[in-house]
């Protein structure tokens, strides 16, 4: 009776009764199984205390989390290394994810793989390429959450990456190339002749051209240095300087408002519908057809290997057509 009275006093103010406490202790002993069998009272109490301490720590860890919205924006802010354009792109995808009903305020730990799949299908289900990018962004949010100890696993990792069929980009014909070059010879577009040569005969991306500075052009070695800060992929490369001998020295520069100037040149040349990076595809196609040196082309394009060249950039072209293209480089 005295022990029972002490038990009541110890549990005074608690929401559990003596019977509840007794049942919990028995459940713990039963769950421990062999670890609790044949153990003396002192060791058993020490074991139960350890179970309680570690159990409390596990519960606290499980409850330590934030909402998807908080985690998503925190992960964006952590990417200080991104260029402004890449940051805008990332923010756009985060907004699309958070616009899905019921997900923004949901705790990060509460998401299952099925939840994430439904979220992605709702936000990006109509476009395999957008689904793939959205999946990558959502996965990066959970990876950031793991580093912050807001979640233990990344449920997005179990979602298959959809296969995206790249649309075939046909290269410009030698006649279309000549139209661009002829337009660039006009007095009002002479400041774009150098840029056009870099696009067509160097395979340099438009965004990379627009970011070039005077120090990136090595006139002595006849090379264009695409530095990591300039490159789309963050890796540097050196590209041979071609097709500039007929361009006046004062026109060998990158004009201000380059994107607008590039758009104006295309329109003046009669191009109403322009395929992004078609100059890069044109360069790769005719380089492969003329020189048949994929390792060299891979280095100039800035690719890790030749697989992307084979799957996306290499459109069969005759050597005769390639010769017409490269003849205009001299």
3D structure, described in words:
- The chain is mainly α and 330 residues long.
- The protein has three domains: 2-63, no CATH class; 68-158, DNA polymerase, domain 1 (Orthogonal Bundle); 174-327, Orthogonal Bundle (hpI Integrase, Chain A).
- Helix content is 55%, strand content 3%.
- It is built from 15 helices and three strands.
- The chain has a three-stranded antiparallel β-sheet.
- A hairpin with a 4-residue loop joins strand 1 (217-218) and strand 2 (223-226).
- Helix 4 (68-77) packs across helix 7 (128-147) and helix 9 crosses helix 12.
- The longest helix has 23 residues, at 41-63.
- The protein is elongated and about 105 Å long.
Please tell me the CATH architecture of the largest domain by its name. Orthogonal Bundle
Number of helices: 15
Q: Give the beta-strand count.
A: 3
Radius of gyration: 32 Å
Envelope shape: elongated
Question: What share of residues is helical?
Answer: 40-55%
The CATH topology annotation of the largest domain reads as: hpI Integrase, Chain A
Name of the level-1 CATH class of the largest domain: Mainly Alpha
Descriptive terms for the model:
single chain, 15 helices, 3 domains, 330 residues, DNA polymerase, domain 1, hpI Integrase, Chain A, mainly alpha, 3-stranded antiparallel beta sheet
Which secondary structure elements does this structure contain, and how are they paired or packed?
Elements (H helix, E strand, L loop, with lengths): L1 H9 L7 H15 L8 H23 L4 H10 L6 H15 L14 H12 L3 H20 L26 H11 L8 H10 L3 H6 L5 E2 L4 E4 L10 E4 L17 H11 L9 H14 L2 H8 L5 H7 L5 H9 L3
Antiparallel strand pairs: 1-2, 2-3
């Amino acid at each position: 009776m005295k022990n029972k009275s002490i038990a009541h006093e110890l549990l005074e103010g608690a929401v559990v009764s003596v019977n509840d406490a007794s049942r919990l202790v028995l459940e713990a002993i039963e769950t421990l199984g062999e670890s609790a069998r044949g153990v003396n009272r002192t060791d058993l109490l020490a074991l139960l205390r350890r179970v309680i301490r570690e159990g409390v720590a596990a519960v606290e860890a499980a409850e330590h989390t934030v909402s998807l919205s908080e985690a998503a924006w925190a992960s964006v802010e952590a990417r200080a290394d991104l260029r402004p354009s890449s940051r805008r792109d990332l923010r756009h995808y985060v907004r699309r994810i958070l616009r899905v009903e019921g997900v923004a305020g949901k705790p990060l730990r509460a998401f299952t793989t099925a939840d994430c799949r439904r979220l992605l299908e709702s936000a990006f289900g109509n476009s395999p390429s957008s689904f793939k990018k959205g999946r990558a962004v959502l996965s990066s949010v959970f990876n950031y959450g793991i580093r912050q100890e807001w979640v233990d696993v990344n449920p997005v990792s179990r979602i298959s990456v959809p296969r995206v069929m790249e649309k075939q980009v046909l290269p410009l014909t030698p006649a279309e190339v000549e139209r661009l070059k002829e337009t660039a010879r006009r007095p009002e577009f002479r400041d774009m002749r150098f840029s056009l040569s870099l696009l067509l005969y160097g395979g340099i991306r438009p965004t990379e051209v627009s970011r070039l500075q005077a120090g990136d052009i090595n006139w002595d070695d006849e090379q264009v240095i695409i530095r990591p800060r300039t490159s789309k992929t963050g890796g540097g490369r050196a590209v041979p300087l071609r097709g500039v001998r007929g361009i006046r020295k004062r026109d060998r520069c990158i004009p201000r408002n380059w994107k607008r100037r590039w758009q104006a040149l295309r329109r003046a040349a009669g191009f109403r519908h322009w395929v992004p990076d078609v100059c890069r595809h044109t360069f790769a196609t005719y380089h492969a057809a003329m020189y048949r040196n994929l390792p060299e082309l891979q280095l100039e394009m800035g690719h890790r290997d030749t697989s992307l060249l084979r799957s996306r950039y290499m459109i069969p072209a005759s050597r005769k057509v390639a010769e017409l293209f490269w003849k205009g480089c001299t």
